[in-house]
Design a protein that fits this description.
With 351 residues, the protein is mostly helical. It contains 14 helices and 6 strands. It is 45% helix and 5% strand.
């Protein structure tokens, strides 16, 4: 058997209902309606799904939070993570809980206290790599509802933010120091990319052209520079009368690998999103990352690459792609790792 047959064979035999559903949809291209219904119903019996569904409010909002947990909202009992969980598990427009959450995104104003910004609206066009609407739009993109809710301005903003990397020498040109803080802050009305911009681009298609994909790859290649040591890891925050952290703005020295215990571990989410964006033909470092993952697939179809498990485990605001119900046995963790590697190969066009 070839590598694709080995990987899909392992996942269809050992994977949970979400993995089996998504392999048939995204790799094989179709799933019989009765089987799809049965798999979705099986997912709906899982504890986290029941938790997310139970926390939904009358207006469709999930839980008592927006951008992750707080003292009144658990890890999944908030709008952002709840939506991402439902989307990653394989739910779509057939799911009432997800549809009602999207209704809330359409009807609840950005100044509402649900967004937990004390009624303030941080305009994503004024504040680089920031703003609650950027989070909202990333959720809409992840859920696949861009045909019902227009996020085209934020898609363009995401492209322009990466393009800005190529227009300046470094982050120093788009930010400044402030006497009251040790952090640099972005100039007002400036642009700079963050993980939410990449999330939006990874889960939309309208922007994709060879020119845009090449531009995005060039921006990442520049961000990945290692020769300017004084700039590696240097980021910036927003200034809103005080310092406000960004939504994970990218810094020079960026890599899809993290070193832990002397081992280079892959961040599968980063590799997957880059592959989804069509960067594989243009970015040698991405080609190398994917080769490491695929070379780690054994004869049983299991990917045994060293991955950043902390970044993979669960589903959260800044990481997490686990769609197995739990990792109580090693095989379930390997199902998540192998599934993500399979998607990387699929979207890179090599599987």
């Amino acid at each position: 058997m070839n590598i694709l047959e080995r990987m899909t064979g392992f996942l269809l035999e050992q994977g949970g209902p979400s993995i089996r559903l998504r392999v048939k949809r995204e790799i094989f291209g179709s799933v019989p309606e009765a089987e799809e219904t049965a798999l979705l119903e099986e997912i709906m019996t899982e504890p986290v799904y029941r938790l997310v569904a139970a926390c939904q409010k009358e207006n469709g909002w999930l839980g008592n939070g927006f951008h992750g947990p707080n003292k009144d909202a658990g890890p999944y009992e908030n709008q952002e993570v709840g939506v991402k969980y439902l989307a990653e598990k394989g739910f779509g427009k057939e799911n009432t809980v997800l549809c009602r959450a999207m209704d809330a995104f359409q009807t609840v104003p950005l100044s509402d206290l649900c967004y937990r910004t004390h009624g303030k609206v941080y305009d994503e066009f004024q504040f680089a790599a920031n703003g609650q609407n950027l989070i909202r739009c990333a959720c809409i993109a992840r859920a696949g509802f861009t045909d019902r809710i227009d996020i085209s301005p934020q898609v363009q903003l995401s492209l322009d933010s990466f393009r800005r990397v190529l227009e300046v020498d470094s982050i120093l040109d788009v930010s400044r120091t402030v006497r009251s803080s040790k952090y640099r802050v972005f100039h007002k009305n400036e642009k700079w990319p963050c993980r939410y911009h990449l999330d939006i681009l990874a889960h939309t298609d309208s922007w994709k052209s060879p020119e845009n994909c090449r531009m995005l790859a060039n921006a990442f290649e520049k961000l990945m520079r290692q020769d300017r040591t004084e700039l590696i890891g240097l980021g910036a925050a927003s200034w809103v009368g005080h310092v406000l952290g960004t939504l994970g703005c990218y810094t020079e020295g960026f890599s899809a690998r993290t070193e832990k215990d002397g081992v280079q571990r892959m961040q599968l989410e980063t590799v997957e999103w880059m592959c989804r964006c069509g960067l594989y033909p243009y970015l040698p470092s991405l080609q190398e990352d994917l080769a490491i993952l695929l070379d780690s697939v054994d004869d049983d179809g299991i990917c045994r690459a060293a991955v950043d498990e902390d970044f993979l485990h669960g589903i959260s605001t800044y990481g997490g792609q686990q769609i197995e119900a739990d990792w109580k046995t090693p095989v379930r963790k390997f199902c998540d790792i192998t599934f993500r590697t399979l998607l990387c190969g699929k979207y890179a066009g090599v599987l």
